[in-house]
Amino acid sequence: MVCAVAAELAALRTRADVDVVAVGVGPVEAALGTARALAARPYRAVINAGIAGGFRARTAVGDGVVVAHEHYVELGLEDGTDFPLPGGVALIRRAESDPALVAACEKARVQAPVGSGITSAIVTTTDARAALLEERFGAHVESMEGFAVLRAAHAAGVPALEVRGISNLVGDRLRSGWNFRAGAQAALATTEAILDVLLGA
Predict the structure, then answer these.
(1) What is the pLDDT of residue 54?
(2) Is residue 85 assigned to a domain?
(3) Is the Cα dihedral 21, 23, 26, 29 positive or negative?
(4) Is residue 130 part of a domain?
(5) How many domains is the chain built from?
(6) Contact in structure between 187 and 64 (CB atoms under 8 Å)
(7) What CATH number has the domain bearing residue 42?
(8) Does a structural domain hold residue 84?
(9) Mean pLDDT, consecutive 10-residue segments, the chain of 201 residues?
(10) In which domain, by residue range, is 34 found?
(11) Which of 45, 105, 188, 200 fits as disulfide partner to 110, beta carbons 3.0 to 4.6 Å?
(12) Is the dihedral of CA 132, 134, 137, 138 positive or negative?
């Protein structure tokens, strides 16, 4: 289990062979922390669980979401397009949760929709930016770590899944409905249900 801060998964039920690693806030810390954890010992899978902002048209505070794929919104040109790099090198701006893990959630009818996410190193605080991101990516959630954890796990050859609990609505902070506890509880409940499925509990 990978989270940004320990408080997000503090109430997770103790299970054999399940470790909780708090890797820090933001894409850089998340990538480094996940890579360190995966280098330290072998794991069969990674679940990145924690709070996130939700886009108003698709989520509400307290919802759980299984994130099937992530876009890193701050890589590339400001308008969201690529730019040419020498030797045909391409920017990697999308990461995927493991399809088999996503399918297991759907098959077991985990009570959380499967959606898409965006990762941003800054938190969106205006309705204008929220509208731009929603139009460009059609995302359900905005996090600061999802893409980084999925990429680090992929690079290590370990299947990974992202789970989010909605703690606020993306946009104007005064209307965001910020509620850490509701988001953490949603992430926790969804994660517990997924672990029951994956571990056969």
Answers:
(1) 98
(2) no
(3) negative
(4) yes
(5) 1
(6) yes
(7) 3.40.50.1580
(8) no
(9) 96 93 97 97 96 96 97 90 85 95 89 95 96 94 98 98 98 94 96 91 55
(10) 2-78+90-199
(11) 105
(12) negative
Question: Quick one: tokens of 110?
Answer: 């985990």
Q: For residue 52, give both structure tokens.
A: 């996130």
The token duo for 78 is 């400001």
- pLDDT at position 201: 55
Q: Which amino acid is at 138?
A: G
What DSSP assignment string belongs to the chain?
Answer: -EESSGGGGTTPPP-TT---EE--SSHHHHHHHHHHHHHHS--S-EEEEEEEEE-TTT--TT-EEEEEEEEETTSS-TTS-----GGG-----EEE--HHHHHHHHHTT-SS-EEEEEE-SS---SHHHHHHHHHHH--SEEESSHHHHHHHHHHTT--EEEEEEEEEESS-GGGS---HHHHHHHHHHHHHHHHHHHHT-
Amino acid at 103: A
The tokens of 143 are what?
């996090």
Tokens standing for residue 42 = 């072998």
Task: Write out the two tokens for 72.
Answer: 């890193």
